[in-house]
Design a protein that fits this description.
Blueprint lengths: L2 H14 L2 H8 L3 H15 L4 E3 L4 E3 L1 H25 L7 E6 L7 H13 L3 E6 L14 E5 L9 E15 L1 H7 L12 E5 L7 E4 L3 E4 L1 E6 L2 H9 L4 E5 H9 L4 E2 L7 E10 L6 H13 L5
Parallel strand pairs: 3-4, 3-5, 7-10, 7-11
Antiparallel strand pairs: 1-2, 5-13, 6-11, 6-12, 6-13, 8-9
Helix pairs in contact: 1-2, 1-3, 1-4, 2-3
Length: 295
């Protein structure tokens, strides 16, 4: 039995979670699809799939094998397409990681547009906020606000867009505490602090001015900090595109916008591969151009 064909059958079953659906896609019988998967399991001396009368799921070994085999088949398809001068249609699951603050209308609008253009790609998006290991955890790419020199060796970073971060607060909070007119006026103000910004209450802002805040909430989740700011709990540093609707609705406003703020570059980060899968290549190209367009 041809092992390469068995790999394609296994990946289809794993993706669709069904022998019947995979067999229909590949134009074979369900019984033959089962034989191909059994061929791989016998070859590896390991169970790849858990089978019940109602569902199919990957074992731990099967998940690892699916991730690696899928990437290998995608690379093979790209090589054959390049040699044959044909285009591979993007399809399958695109697994990506992004910061919590990326869950905003700015990004979702682009994701919806990408989905309309490439409906056969399923976007599996992780917004845990942690720095994932792309290779070990089977991610295709990550969206990270970083610089290339801070990346692990073997990773490629493609710049997508400059993201502006501002100090924000609700009008209610500023009316209660007074609107700062200078950086020095920020001393003692309540701060909703993102865990990754500073190890303590003292921050250096606006060209070297040291400010001592009073942290009232500490979190790795920017959405929680955003909601707390809207409720008037304190000041918060957030990217503009995350809070634009809050600003337009009068729920938040920028504090000292001409004196405080910083810009970070959002990158598409992915493992270095000579041949990118069609789904990964089209997603990176699409995001590069679409995020530059004015909304």
């Amino acid at each position: 039995m041809d092992t390469l064909t068995s790999l394609r059958v296994f990946c289809a079953v794993a993706e669709l979670k069904s022998f019947t659906s995979a067999a229909e896609r590949l134009g074979i019988s369900s019984a033959m699809a089962s034989k191909h998967v059994m061929h791989l399991e016998n070859r590896l001396s390991a169970r790849l799939l858990n089978r019940t009368s109602r569902r199919v799921s990957l074992t731990e070994t099967g998940q690892l094998y699916f991730t690696q085999a899928g990437q290998m088949l995608e690379a093979l398809d790209e090589v054959e397409a390049a040699i044959g001068n044909v285009t591979v249609h993007p399809r399958g699951v695109l697994k990506l990681s992004a910061p919590v603050w990326a869950a905003s209308p700015c990004l979702v609008d682009r994701l919806a547009e990408y989905n309309q253009r490439y409906p056969d790609v399923c976007l599996d998006i992780n917004l845990s906020g942690r720095i994932v290991n792309l290779v070990d955890e089977g991610f295709d790419l990550a969206l990270r606000a970083t610089t290339p020199e801070r990346l692990d060796p073997g990773l490629i970073a493609r710049p997508l867009i400059e993201v502006k971060f501002h100090l924000m607060a609700s009008p209610d909070y500023l009316e209660r505490t007074g609107r700062p007119k200078a950086i020095a006026d920020l001393n003692g103000h309540a701060l909703l602090r993102f865990s990754g910004i500073s190890p303590g209450d003292i921050m250096t802002l606006g060209g070297g001015h040291k400010v001592t805040f009073r942290t009232v909430m500490l979190s790795e989740n920017e959405t929680l900090l955003q909601l707390a700011a809207v409720q008037g709990m304190g000041l918060v540093f957030l990217p503009r595109w995350m809070v634009e609707q809050n600003i337009n609705a009068g729920q938040l406003e920028t504090v000292l916008p001409d004196a405080i703020g910083f810009t970070s570059t959002l990158h598409a980060v992915y493992p270095s591969r000579k041949y990118l899968s069609a789904k990964l290549r089209t997603f990176i190209d699409f995001m590069t151009t679409s995020l530059q367009r004015p909304r």
